[in-house]
Amino acid sequence: MTVTIVGTQLGDEGKGALVDRYGGAADVVVRYQGGDNAGHTVVEDGEEYALSLVPSGAVRGTTGVLGNGCVVNPQTLFSELDDLRERGLEPDVRVARRAHVIFPYHRRLDGIEEEAKADSGEEIGTTGRGIGPSYEDKAARRGVRVGDLLAPDVLREKLEHVVPQKRALIEDVYDADAGEECDLEALHEEYADYGRRLGEEGMTVNCGDYLADRLADGDNVVFEGAQGTCIDVDHGNYPFVTSSNPTAGGATVGTGLGPTVVGDGEVIGVVKAYLSRVGSGPMPTELDGDDEAEALATEIRERGGEFGTVTGRPRRVGWLDLPVLRHAARANGLTGIAVNHLDVLADLDELAVGHAYELDGETIHTPPTRTEAWEECSPVTRSFEPWPDVDWDAVADEGYDALPAAARTYLEYLESELDTEVYAVGVGPDRDQTIELVDPWDRV
Ligand code: IMP
């Protein structure tokens, strides 16, 4: 049985808490794309664990898998694993041999390319983790895969091919010093050592075979999408996107299981009750432009702790954007949604959503395909009655009917617009501050 969890917005929906919740009944949690750009915080027994690559389930004994669709930075992987072990845990993490490896030159190029784009105001605002450059190498068929780390001679051959190209790019195109990121001998030594460690610890797998066997044994599998639909390289606001497919289709390509496996299960979209975004790109419902809007944005940002987990950058904040959610519901084939951060919107002076967009005198209900046009959209807002601040712990205890009536109206509007059911409602950051209406494991 499978449950796929995806972000419906821009990547900061608070998926971690939900993966944590549904991961409790799972035997395996699989990441199928992205790399150490996906910051997530897991709280277990009062201990806080900040992870960016290791799947969150690994903190509580669930097998964590990094699928073939991931790009893996072994430095991050082993530093996170070492940290968890030092804190007394025994994480069981498997890595697909077909996953691609992030090298120091990828991170370096990520920084250099962003700087170059910044000169003309075109930077993406990446996390600087080398994600884009590493996926570029994958698509250009010069990438190094995790399986290659296990064979030092093959690794050397591949590095001999690719490192001079990176050196030339850094020195000749960007006029920068290539430095230690392009020191072939040092790279080979360090990365062959990671390969030795991966081999000794029996961490690498043929991902599709491994997961098919676990499913055949009757295990429950969660596919954990990192980032979100609007920063999907195909379905997002290109080029302000990450370089992979966080949408549910990625769960098949990025693991080696067929679409029928993912489609047979549940696909849950995580929705933050408002919108936030790290980095550049269109955001028609952004709260900015005048003092009143900016004061509201500041209030929501501070209450919601809207600062990037990986970068610490303050996030841009806006009203919930329905065109974005309609797009996500279709692109992911959502069977249910989990709406969180509802408590953050309590007691505001005003509350609205972007119900549609207006573009060139027309009203549209899903985002335009061209990002430049998306930038020009203005929101057609719909006002909602703000709900009062209440004892959210008590509400979480008592369940859905204890939510303020205005909050229920907001959720029911979402259900009807997206033609899907609300499975869970988050009213606070802790695990027990989620109201569960539907347990997806009962549905699969
Ligand atoms: P990259 O993934 O580092 O290449 O960054 C590309 C874009 O995706 C930037 O706008 C980042 O801020 C955004 N991004 C990447 N990972 C995350 C995430 O986990 N949450 C939110 N935004 C992200």
Topology, element by element:
Layout (H helix, E strand, L loop, with lengths): L1 E6 L7 H9 L4 E4 L8 E5 L2 E5 L11 E4 L4 E2 L1 H13 L6 E4 L3 E2 L2 H15 L12 H9 L6 H4 L2 H22 L10 H17 L3 E2 L1 H10 L4 E4 L25 H4 L5 H6 L1 E7 L2 E3 L13 H14 L11 E3 L1 E2 H11 L3 E5 L10 E9 L2 E3 L6 H6 L1 E7 L7 H7 L6 H14 L2 E6 L7 E3 L3 H4 L1
Helix pairs in contact: 3-4, 6-7
Bound molecules: inosinic acid.
Inosinic acid binds next to helix 4.
Question: Any overview of this molecule?
Answer:
With 444 residues, this protein is of the alpha/beta class. The protein has three domains: 2-96 and 204-263, Adenylosuccinate Synthetase, Chain A, domain 1; 101-198, Adenylosuccinate Synthetase, subunit A, domain 2, CATH 1.10.300.10; 271-442, Adenylosuccinate Synthetase, subunit A, domain 3 (Adenylosuccinate Synthetase, Chain A, domain 3), CATH 3.90.170.10. Helix content is 37%, strand content 19%. It contains 16 helices and 20 strands. The chain has helices at residues 15-23, 74-86, 104-118, 131-139, 146-149, 152-173, 184-200, 207-216, 250-253, 259-264, 291-304, 322-332, 371-376, 392-398, 405-418, 440-443, and strands at 2-7, 28-31, 40-44, 47-51, 63-66, 71-72, 93-96, 100-101, 204-205, 221-224, 266-272, 275-277, 316-318, 320-321, 336-340, 351-359, 362-364, 378-384, 421-426, 434-436. α6 runs antiparallel to α7. The longest helix is centred in the middle third of the chain and has 22 residues, at 152-173. The mean pLDDT is 95. Bound molecules: inosinic acid. Inosinic acid (IMP) binds at residues 11-12, 37-39, 124-127, 129, 131-132, 226-227, 231, 240, 242-243, 278-279.
